[in-house]
Amino acid sequence: MNLLNKPLFSITIRHYKFHPTLIPLIVTLATLSALLALGSWQLDRAEYKEKLEQMIAERIHQTPIPLSSAPQESQQQLYLPVSVKGDYDSAHNILLDNRVYDMQAGYNVFTPLKISQQHGILINRGWVPLGRDRQILPEIKTGTQYYSLQGVLLDPPTTNALGIQLKENYQQWPVVVQSVNLKEIEQQLGYTLEPKILTLSDHAQSGFKRKKIPITLNMSSDRHIGYAITWFLCAIVLFILFIVASSQNESKNNDK
Predict the structure, then answer these.
(1) Cα 44 from chain centroid?
(2) Structural domain boundaries of the chain?
(3) Whole-prediction pTM value?
(4) Strands 146-154 and 119-129
(5) Of 227, 222, 185, 205, which is closest to residue 89 (Cα–Cα)?
(6) pLDDT in tens, 237-256
(7) C-alpha distances in angstroms, 127 versus 28, 107, 200, 250?
């Protein structure tokens, strides 16, 4: 018996003898450390996301401030209620495809609001249903008068249902898109847009059907906790398997 296969120590509990060898012990301890570290990291992420979710929930109910007074930092703008004034660019309506409201397919309507001649912000006005024929687009009614709008700043939906960024076709308006790419839209409009979109609040004018604004992060605190539990369970299972593999029932040996 060489050193690697020789038991490092032996503990007998009733009929069972626990006698681990070197290599399985090292591999098990290393793997356990990694699993526990991953679980702890997920718990830390869950705590961070929980605080972020709480902060966003509080921010979303604040009194709207003028867009011009909003902080420049992107994270501080997210879910911030703001007000803005301008004219709808009704010649450039955008229909975001594959949006569902009350189990019915349709589009989310985005219309640029021109704050000045060279600058604007994309407005998420809400949802409209899909017609009987996808070739016939819904009519988007937009007045030309000066608007004062209120809503919440959000990141644009930049990927489609498959999570892929696509090159859209802007040959005719209104345009149907699978994702909202502000840089591409700016090139078509000929003026700059704010880096965030404005999702109209429930009481905002000139909008369509709207859901309650969800708090969506790339991963929720609950999911992080779920991953942490998974890593800890893997660690427990590994520990049990190591104990079983390194133990021997002495009563069976004595009966032979």
Answers:
(1) 18
(2) 33-60+218-249, 62-200
(3) 0.67
(4) unpaired
(5) 185
(6) 999 998 888 777 655 555 54
(7) 54, 6, 11, 71
